[in-house]
Amino acid sequence: MSDMPPKLAEIVEEFASAPREVVLEMLLEFADAMPPVPADLAGHDGMEQVPECQTQFFLKATVRPDDTVEVWFDCPPEAPTTRAFAGILAEGLQGATAAEILAVPDDLYARMGLANAISPLRIRGGSAILARLKRQVSVGAG
């Protein structure tokens, strides 16, 4: 799994090797651990909406001068699966460079074995989040 940042690779491996009944618990832990957006992004100012998600979901990625990327996600607590995707990306990509994020495989959620635990619609939403995140990073790094 060297095609993704080490923290994210570790999370993917944990999910891929977990029994199905534990996966949902793990998702809820990531949903609960998702950091709140800073005050300057409250109200989604400067954040991009991900319309492919069934729920209101917003993200913002900023490429810093040292080429690391800061990511922020906002999603209501009533959407735990989508919040979990955001929490996984927030933790797994913390401190990652633009190139590392752009190298994250598009089938990330399939590699995690989530297709057995959650609906295809949710997987599509998660994939759309990753795609929009990568697009913001590529624009910011360009």
Automatic annotation (TrEMBL):
Entries under Pfam families matching the protein:
SufE
- Database matches in InterPro entries: Fe-S_metab-assoc_dom
Q: Which domain of life is it from?
A: Bacteria
Q: Which residues form the Fe-S metabolism associated domain?
A: 13-136
Which family, according to the similarity comment?
A: Belongs to the SufE family.
Name of the molecule in the record: Cysteine desufuration protein SufE
According to its UniProt entry, this protein's organism is Paractinoplanes ferrugineus
Recite the lineage of the species.
Bacteria, Bacillati, Actinomycetota, Actinomycetes, Micromonosporales
